[in-house]
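[PROTEIN RECORD]
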Amino acid sequence: MRRLALALAVLAVTACSDGGEPQAARTVAVTMKNVAFSPATLSVAKGETVTFEFTNEDSVRHDAFVGDAAAQADHEKDMRSGDGHGGHGGDDAVTVEPGKTATLTHTFDEAGTVEIGCHEPGHYGGGMKIVVTVT
């Protein structure tokens, strides 16, 4: 009986996984408005996968980039290169146009502090970030 239950559990997990993107343990709704994210802080467990659903309630474009403070500084510099919109690279960033919603899924692999920052001109410097504590 135990073997049957174990086999069914493995089958259920396998059937729910497409082998691609990590499956999020939870979804966090985030509002982007007035050069701020809401919520502005979040706690997650090490290894947890979270899908962020960003809704831009402003009349200007916002973005969200996941990384530690050094990665945020590098990304800010990259975004200021060239025409002022250096662009995002990788899977840890999303741009959200006014009135739109976009999602970003991230697995928090290391304990510590990570930020989600908006790097449209003046936004990150104005405090538009989410401080994520990974325990």
Q: What stands out?
A: DSSP finds two helices and nine strands in the chain. The beta strands are 26-32, 37-38, 41-44, 49-56, 62-67, 93-96, 101-107, 112-117, 129-134. The chain has a mean pLDDT of 82.
